[in-house]
Every structure is written in structure tokens, then in C-alpha cells.
Specification:
- This protein is α/β, with parallel strands linked by helices.
- The protein is built from twelve helices and nine strands.
- The strands form two sheets. Strands 5-9-8-6-7 form a five-stranded parallel beta sheet, with helices on one face.
- It is globular, with a radius of gyration of 20 Å.
- 31% of the residues are buried.
Length: 255
Amino acid sequence: MNAKHRGALVRLVPLMPVVLMLCTASAPVRADGGGILQATLAESGPKTPEVSTEHVRRVVQDGSAFIIDTRSAAEFASGHIPGARAVGGPQAVAAVEKIVSGDRAHPLVLYCNGPYCQASRRLGDQLVDAGFSKVTRYQLGIPVWRALGGPTEIELEAIVRVHARDQTAIFIDARPADDFARGSLPGARNAPLGPSAAAALKAPLLPEDDFNTRIVIFGRDAADALVLAELMRTRPWHNVSYYPGSFESLRAAIP
């Protein structure tokens, strides 16, 4: 192998995981002339069309569709797209009908664990067969949502489990420094909201040897936690979730 080929190989190695995903996915990834936020798998078989990450971001903001998480309850609790509803199991179609209050023309966005996950495809087909007329899928799913900087909500039961079992997880308290000094979760670190919050979100507060480290953000309430989580959107850490509840409820569960 000559020097030119060795140099090309060195440049290619960091891209191999992305290349493999694009080449081995169930259908070609297509961005329709846009960037990665507009990409879909471009599947031709399923009954339901796909939507992009950009589309899901708009739905999270404007509430124009119900976002349906088709994974297990435990997976949902550990981290889900903000505002998503957990639906799974043999009664999934009935559960969705209840969510839309019987309006089968209400827009729906289904997702699960990415390109290889079949749960959203199966439920999408079932909903179409049941007469739902505006069913779409975010088939890139939660892995790509996270990778592109999308924050996820984590439920209280999952925070309790993570705090007890995952010694590598980092908990970030977005409350003011005075509140933090009076008491926080054991082992939590403080990044108060304000002009210096963005600057604080780096080493030594966050690790720079593993950008997949689980990061859980909480604050006085969901709004505070979400602000800090959104600041993480353009940072390299991509396993970020925030607690959409009050600090009091969190402290009661983890004294």
C-alpha cells in the first residue's frame, strides 16, 4: 500500500460507521436535495410514508401531529422524543384511537429504534388497515434523533434507575447556584441558567473522553431543564435527556 492509499484509508476510517449504516440500511437514505435533517430511508414497500428529522422537529414545536413511540414502556421511560405518547402491545391501535379521540384523520408520526426496527412499520400498517388516513413514520428513529442533537425526555422511574445503576451517568442541575448549594441530587453538577450557562457546558463539567456518556439534565421545572438541553444541541455529546418535571418530585424520589 503506497502513501497515497494509506492517507485515504486514514481519512475513511472515522467515517466507516456512517458508511456502513447508509449501505446496509433497509433502503437507500435520501435527502431530496437537502441536508441530513431532510433525509429519510426512501423506503418503497410500507403503506405509510416517511418524514424527516426536520419534520419531527417542527411537530415537536407546533403540535401539529401526535408523535407515537412504538417501543417498549421501559425504552420510552429511558428517553423519548419530547411530547411523544407511549403506545405498544396488542392493543396499540385502540390506544392510538383513544389518543386521537376517535379522529382517524388526525396526523400521526410513528417512530422506534431506527432503520432496522419493525415496530413502527407494523403499527403503521395496522393503523392504515384500521382506517387511519394520515399516518407517517420517522423511520430513522431515536438513534438519529439523538445523533442530530435532539434532546429526549426521561421519565422519573428511569432517572431513579439510572442514578442507582449507571455510575458513569452525569446529572446536571440547571437551578441557580444558591439553590444548588442548599441541596441537589447526590453527585449532581451545577450549570445555572444564565449568560454563562453555554460556556459552562464543557470540560471539566462534562467529559471529553466519551461523548456518548449519558447526561441527564434537570432544573426547577421542565422549562428550565429544556433550555439547558437545547443548549446541548450543537455540542458533541449526543446521549442527552432532560427531566420534564419539578425538582421537588425528583428530590422526593432520590433523597
